[in-house]
Specification:
single chain; Aminopeptidase; 2 domains; eight-stranded mixed beta sheet; 10 helices; 15 strands
Length: about 350
Amino acid sequence: MTATLRPWRDDDADAVAEACADPVIARYLPFLPQPYTRDDALAFFRNKPGDPAIVDAETDRVLGAIGSTPRGDGIAEVGYWVAPWARRQGVASAALEQFSGRLFEQGLRRVYLVTALTNGASQRVAVAGGYTREGIARGSARTADGTWADMVVWARTAGDPPGRSARALPDLAGGELTDGVITLRALTEDDGPSTYELRSHPDVSGRSVVGTPIDPAVVTRQCAESVSKWIAGLRAEMTIRDAADGTYLGEIALYHSEPLLREAMIGYSLAPGARGKGHAARAARLVTDWGFEIGMARMIAGTATDNIASQRVLEAAGYHREGLQRSRLPGPDGTRIDNLQFAKLRPAAT
């Protein structure tokens, strides 16, 4: 499928109405009329005459929409949506590249777009379109219930080189890491209940450096927003699952702690019923090897001095104890506790 841009026609209205009934579009464009009708589509064509349709170059079928809004001298904000029948085929990325080129040809010096923290698909489109992540615009978008949400800001300037933007932490090839016994997959919103249950165990929350929220809605939101941190190159959070049946066993993450030094840290937790079976060591090995594959020179991890089980996990995963860091970790009631640091170095090339 090859996406191209052309002006809207009245006979596109039924396809637009069908696409805009999709719950994903309704979620991320909450102020579209619902139900969205043919008349709403025709009104959209009249109100935004300069914004093109995204269509299949061979069949002329409507695949989505893209457009811009002036935001000052030489600046425009871009927005887009893709119909359910055209997703995961590079449609939005191709359209964004074409449309951004048009805007620069018209003399614009900066174009930007904003994406929801939970909208990983749209953030990947921005990366593919050569947009650079600039940061979080806090409380910048009103939601359907009247509250305000944070948004990720992405931008391109007229002088930026062509091609994709760089990512420090790529997506998992094939969507997972596995050794045949366990499987690691990216943390998602659907993992909220299992993750909350795991983090609610006292022996998990008591070992957590960042603390554990007691509100399941907060944990679910954190799971949903995890994709944004991954694409930003901050950390890659994954669930640990039984490779045979997909049972949730725990969680593990790679924290991109020292990008300039090509160093990352791992952290993990297992559900009580999954312990004592070697799953944590397997997960640590998988994440560590992946870290080396994507360019890390050194992987580290730390444990409290009394956490013998975690120390054995790291040793089984090939980590070596480097030393004691006094009072490095926050402890209960404002205290500080010592950290035993472990490290594993990238194998030398053969």
